[in-house]
Each structure stands twice: as structure tokens, then as C-alpha cells.
Amino acid sequence: MFIFNLACKKFMLNQLFSVPRLFHLSKLLSTSFSSTEYILNSVDKNEYIKYKFPNEIKIKNLVDIKRQQFDSSFTIIPDIVSVDEESRLINEIEKSLKRLRYQHDHWDDAIHGYRETEIMSWKDQKNTNVIQRLRNKVFANESITEQMQRVHVLDLCDDGYVKPHIDSIRFCGNIIAGLSLLSDSVMRLADENYPDTYVVYALLPRRSLYIMKNSVRYQYTHEILSDGAPSVFNDKQIVRKRRVSIVMRNEPPVEAMK
Length: 258
Description:
By secondary structure, this protein is of the alpha+beta class. It is built from seven helices and twelve strands. It has one domain (49-249): Jelly Rolls. It has helices at residues 2-16, 19-30, 33-41, 60-73, 83-97, 125-138, 214-219, and strands at 49-52, 74-77, 111-119, 151-165, 175-181, 185-191, 199-204, 209-213, 220-224, 232-233, 236-237, 243-249. Strand 10 and strand 11 form a beta hairpin.
């Protein structure tokens, strides 16, 4: 038995410290933050995005184009904030929400079981630094004046949900990004013109960031499924608990505000 245990330990150590694993470990431990971001961006999208597109041969070219457009306009970055950073953000958000009750109606009937607020500036400097880091990622090609300086905080209770909608072009520009806190969730996106034909399910892990822009932002409805609804991803039930999201947007073009 002693020899068997020793052999097992030797095998495990060889696997853990094999050349390929050591290479990836050294890359992760020695990279700068920007390099780490690249690693996160290179995660296989199939882990987080499932397409429900038609597979007829006669429209294959169209389907390929639609998928390429979606791929270029929707991104999920997992583990964009740490557990400690999530905790600090939630602690400050709680202070803004503590006097608010969960609402079950919305002015355009888009959200149920929610509380919301807006934050222009963060009191905790570490939270300011985190949000700025995310802004640098989301709005990499935009000036400060093109970004909305306030962020929208949406707190969904356990059975809260967001119905399919497209954000009005009067209230934000071509980029919408959301940091998901406290719970995994499933976002369902559907082509506005072909809502039963081109559908995408996106798994939004806790502490991940999604970025939607351009064609996805303008042409696809998006919704957050509740735990009571069939919140399923890749044939697996996703238990949705209370979810807090920090939503960042850019300013709408001047002509859209007229």
C-alpha cells in the first residue's frame, strides 16, 4: 500500500509540474495585467455562448455572417474582478439601496423584482479604481466625454428577471457593458426581426463582465432569465439567486437625443 500511495503521489506531481503546465503557470504568474486580460479574452467562447441558429445548408452563408457579426459584437470576460473586489463593491452598493424596496413593476414593464440606483462617484477609492479599470477595458477607443460618468446599478431579487428589450437609442450609445455580481445568470438574446430563428444563450458567471456593442446592441433583444423560468445553459440548470449588476454605457449620439 505504501508503494502504491508513493506511486500515486509521484504521478500527480509529474502531472502538476509537467512542462506544459509549468509554461502556463509561469505565463500567468509573470504577465502584466494587460497580458492577463488577453488570456481571459482568449477563453473559448463555447464555454459561455450557445447559438440556436438554423442549420439549413441553403442559408449557411447567412448563418455564418450572422454568427460572425455576433461574435464581433458580444464579449464575456470571466473573473474580471476578485472576490475581495466584489465584496467591497457590494458593501458600498448596499448603502445606496438599503432604504429601497424591491419593485415588481417598471415604467416600461421590462423589469420585475428589482431595486435600482445610479452612482456617479464611489466613496471607496478601491472601488473607484476597479470601475476605472473596467472602463478602460470597455471604452478603450472612446474619450472620457463619450462615456456616461454615472453607472446604473440593478439589483434583482432571487425571482426577479429582465424581460426582452433593446435599450432606447435616446438614452445610450452603441456600447453597453455589465459587471455581474453575487450570482451566475443566463442572458437570452434574440434577433429583433427573427426572434425565433436567431437566438443566443449567454452564461454570465458571477464576477464576469459582458460587453455588447454595435449590431448586438441595436439588433438583438436581451433578457435575464429568472430562476423560476427555465434558466438553463448547455442542458444544465443555472440556479439564479440575487444578482447585482453594474451597467456602464456610453453617451448617445447627439442626433438620437433630438
